[in-house]
Amino acid sequence: MKFLELANKRGSVRSYSDKKVEEEKIQRCLEAARLTPSACNSQPWEFIVVSESEKRAGLAGFTGLALSKLNSWTHQAPVLVVVVAKKPNLSAGLGAAVKNRPYWLMDVGMAAEHFCLQAAEDGLGTCMLGWFNEKGVKKLLSLKRTDKVVLLITLGYPARDVVKIKKRKSLDEMSRIEG
Ligand SMILES: Cc1cc2nc3c(=O)[nH]c(=O)nc-3n(C[C@H](O)[C@H](O)[C@H](O)COP(=O)(O)O)c2cc1C
What we know:
By secondary structure, the chain is α+β, with helices and mostly antiparallel strands. The protein has a single domain (15-156), classed as 3-Layer(aba) Sandwich (NADH Oxidase), CATH 3.40.109.10. 38% of the residues lie in helices and 15% in strands.
């Protein structure tokens, strides 16, 4: 698949079939994330793959908002991936402090997208989730105090084959060519 085709194919999937996700496909997504560039090659990430039903249900329960339907569909995803930001290495940490830029957050975001693009290439659906109860997730997975949960990603085979037209700003709105 050409890259632009793949970038178009990846879309947030919020309805999953219960078909099991093959271990080698999960490994390929992790490998894609592993190859992501990062500030000072710090690689400040950990991907925690949760397929076991009780733990997964616990995690899905942390993605909702009381009295709303927000993220209520996450319960039917066969795999949940917790994307954790670890303490960056010394140079990346210093650089981020001096420049007041959260390089680690950019690094982890890119790694998450690598993961999702590989999933799309393998016919899997994903949706990144930025809305969750971080305290609950950290407790459930016994994460360290210094760990930050940046995203959760749902992973599985889409229930339906839908091609969604991307709603995006036009090239003119999102770019300019300065000669
Ligand atoms: C950082 C981030 C957080 C997001 N959080 C949620 C979320 O909590 N729930 C949800 O349903 N979608 C979430 N999304 C998915 C976006 O709504 C989606 O990517 C956007 O509408 C573009 O659609 P597409 O992914 O289908 O191209 C999130 C996406 C990103 C990148």
